[in-house]
Amino acid sequence: MDFNQVRYFLALADSLNFTRAAEHCNVSQPALTQAIRRLENELGGELIRREGRDSELTTLGRSLRGYFEEIERTRNLVRTTARAVTAVAAAELNLGLMCTVGPRALGLALDRFQKANPNVSLILHDVTLESIPPLLLAGTIDGAFCARHGARDPQLDYVALFEEPMVVAFPAGHAFAAREAVPLDDVARERYVDRLHCEFRDEFLARVAERELELNVAFRSQREDWIQSMIRDGAGVSVLPRFSLLRPELDSRPVVEPKLSRHVELALVAQRDIVPVLGDLVRFLGGVDWEEAA
Questions:
Q1: Are 192 and 238 spatial neighbours (Cβ–Cβ below 8 Å)?
Q2: pLDDT tens digits in sequence order for the chain, 294 residues long
Q3: How far is CA 65 from CA 8, 71, 106, in A?
Q4: Domains in the chain and their CATH numbers?
Q5: Cα–Cα separations (whole angstroms), residue 223 to 196, 274, 290
Q6: Which whole-number Å values give the CA distances from 177 to 23, 129, 168, 247, in the listed order?
Q7: If I label 282, which of 94, 106, 184, 261 is the partner at 20 to 30 A Cα–Cα?
Q8: Positive or negative torsion for Cα 240, 241, 247, 253
Q9: Which pairs with CB-CB distance under 8 Å and at least 24 residues apart come from 128-132?
Q10: Integer CA distances (angstroms), 10 to 2, 6, 53, 63, 125, in order
């Protein structure tokens, strides 16, 4: 028995006419007739009695009709479920990501989420802090990972993820390696590589000015990869977010006096129903142990 035989029988039971049943199932009448005969042979009795142009269900046909209808309902439910799962499989999340938010912790968390949801594709877009609100409101991105300083945008909601300490990065063998932490005053005495794209930069420079310090800036760059390579090669030190430190050759220590840190958040459009998969991501991120992830 196959699903087509079930479908053909139910069409015939409704119409009691082989021609109309064949038209309803989009098959030829001989094909439908042969399928019904095979079904009858398998079941061991006639399902429909043919008397000239008239047909009627036999006792066996009437007895089995309800079971066949249940099989057809189950088949349709399976197909509907399969389409729903396929729709989830094709789900995409477009996520904004500021270039200063490093992948060291967040990248691992997103990888774990995707492995737990293998039918979801995550697309990461490079964004700036200023571009996040218009991109979210236009629906170009579904959410944005950002390190926000200053006032909240009233059109957005912010999901707190983790507080990230700022560290001073330096090459192997540097004198800072002997310390547990480095005061800002001592950072200012070193050659400095200035990170122009960091959203924390203005606040950092303000802290430097408050202490009446002056940075000995040797290089300025917008490129995070260049900055870390230059630090590795001895061009200077730099203050950067802990999870942005990617090169294993570099060492780092927390900056103290004053202690510096930033908050990383996921920005979403306020008062907008979010798609289920984005809700799944928000809940997943809420349970991440960020220290372990880093």
A1: yes
A2: 788 899 999 998 999 988 888 998 988 999 999 999 999 999 999 999 887 667 899 999 999 999 898 888 888 888 776 666 655 555 889 999 988 888 888 999 999 999 998 889 999 999 988 899 999 998 899 999 998 777 788 999 999 999 999 999 999 999 999 999 999 999 999 999 999 888 788 889 999 999 999 999 999 998 988 999 999 999 999 999 998 888 889 999 999 999 999 899 999 998 777 788 899 999 999 998 887 766
A3: 12, 10, 57
A4: 3-88 (1.10.10.10), 92-293 (3.40.190.290)
A5: 8, 34, 26
A6: 83, 33, 11, 16
A7: 261
A8: positive
A9: 128/98, 129/98, 129/199, 131/96, 132/96, 132/98, 132/156, 132/267
A10: 13, 6, 19, 13, 52
Residues, the chain? 294
Both tokens of residue 34? Answer: 């042969």
Instruction: Tell me the residue type at 32.
Output: L
